[in-house]
Design a protein that fits this description.
Blueprint lengths: L13 E5 L3 H10 L5 E5 L5 H8 L4 E3 L13 E4 L4 H13 L3 E4 L12 E5 L2 E5 L6 H26 L1
Length: about 160
């Protein structure tokens, strides 16, 4: 089933990310510019996640996931490498009616993460429905290049 590209203001939303490895870190990085309150639950984290926590950009709880971690969240992301843990996270989110995404089963997700291109107020999202990440990454890269060229043209006009 195709997902509708829905742009929504998530500023101030409590978002819980369980897992702080490569995928969790990518998800957090994507969310940071949008003013949400990010809580990360993971016994260990990538250095970038540790840094964001140290800077106060996110809250990192350095321990294993517990069901109560999703309480009050508007969005929950399961980004662990353990299917059984992701299943438990999904069950807890669904029971509470929380929007949910998991890294290991694209068809179980309420939404997919797009490739993001942000330039000033412009936000472009590219998504392949979780089926062709390379194609989405290639298109995202091409859009970035077009926007850079457009920016250069506008800068030249101003001079």
């Amino acid at each position: 089933m195709k997902k509708f590209p829905f742009f929504v203001d998530i500023s101030g939303w409590k978002i819980v990310v369980i897992g702080a490895g490569t995928i969790g870190t990518r998800r957090i990085r994507s969310l940071l510019p949008f003013g949400c309150e990010i809580t990360v639950v993971a016994p260990a984290a990538e250095k970038e996640v540790e840094s964001w926590a140290g800077e106060g950009k996110i809250c990192w709880i350095a321990r294993e996931y517990r069901e109560e971690d999703v309480e009050g969240a508007r969005l929950v992301l399961a980004a662990t490498q353990e299917k059984a843990v992701n299943d438990r996270i999904e069950e807890a989110a669904r029971k509470r009616g929380i929007l949910f995404n998991r890294c290991d089963e694209k068809d179980a997700c309420d939404f997919h993460f797009p490739g993001l291109i942000i330039q000033g107020d412009l936000v472009v999202g590219v998504n392949s429905g979780g089926r062709n990440h390379r194609q989405a990454a290639k298109v995202s890269s091409e859009i970035r290049e077009v926007l850079k060229r457009m920016e250069n043209v506008e800068t030249e006009r101003m001079e």
